[in-house]
Amino acid sequence: MAGNFPEIWLGRVIDNLKKGDVAPWLEGIAEIAANPVMINEGTITEKQKIYVPVTEFDVDVLVNNTTYPIDVQEYADGTIEITLNKFQTKVTTLSDDDSMGASYDKIDTVTKSHTRSINSDKYQRALHSIAPNATTADTPVIQTSGADDGTGRLRMRYEDLVEARRAFPYKGARLVLSNDHYNDLLLDRERFANLLVNHKTGETAPIIAGFKIYKYDDGVHPLYDNTGAKKAYGSLAVAGDTEASVMFTEDAIGKKTGITKQYFVKAENNPRTQSNELNYRHYFIAVPYQAKKIGAIR
Predict the structure, then answer these.
(1) Euclidean distance between the first and final Cα of the chain, in Å?
(2) How far, in Å, are 47, 56, 68 from residue 63 at the CA level?
(3) All structural domains of the chain with their residue ranges
(4) Rounded to a whole number, what is the largest CA-CA distance in the chain?
(5) Residue 198 — very low, low, confident or very high, per pLDDT cuts 50/70/90?
(6) pTM summary value
(7) Looking at residue 14, what DSSP letter applies?
């Protein structure tokens, strides 16, 4: 049973979290150089924290972030304390047959829903966290200028990418296109269709207007209202809201992958349901170091 192979099951899940349903737009982004510290382990208040030199972060940006209330505390010794986001899956019930053995096929079949859910949530939150709260000189939020698509949304044009690049003239600039913006560019077949579609597996991201172009198929992009302000993570779209494409530079973002924990109860120890139960807890965060070199196109 899974309980007899805890290291193999957990190791495989950790590997799948790294390789499955990844966010290519975060590939190559450096991990924050800090060792995670577990607080209140094994309790409902369990947290994982990292301690980072103040010089690496603009603390106010983290405190004012609208994705979720990031727990940050500044210390007198020149470090800040950051609490990683905790992702927990719902418990899955398993028959004895499903929990037997340690083959990768068996493990992947049982745990696929867990790894996909964790990755989907953590990368959506990461993209939302990277997007700026509003437009400033250091965090431009560009309004598209194309024709109305019939819903009140203005389509993205090549000229909008040029305008974004003018406001975002940094080396290593990446642009994660929303589905609507991606489709807008596909309409301009002469300039974009081949660049966006006909690239080989393993080829680096195409470069358009100085941006490395990415698309995140599995996630909902940050919402901006009609004033250009970013809405809180998980907000429902209303009239006038648009999903934004997000731009950032490769050196402006930090990420940290914490530990992954596996919880398993054998059927013989579970008289309530008389079935095996399994779930996972995973820690991760991705944030901009400062309110600079990040932006959006809405």
Answers:
(1) 50
(2) 18, 15, 10
(3) 2-130+254-289, 141-249
(4) 65
(5) very low
(6) 0.84
(7) H
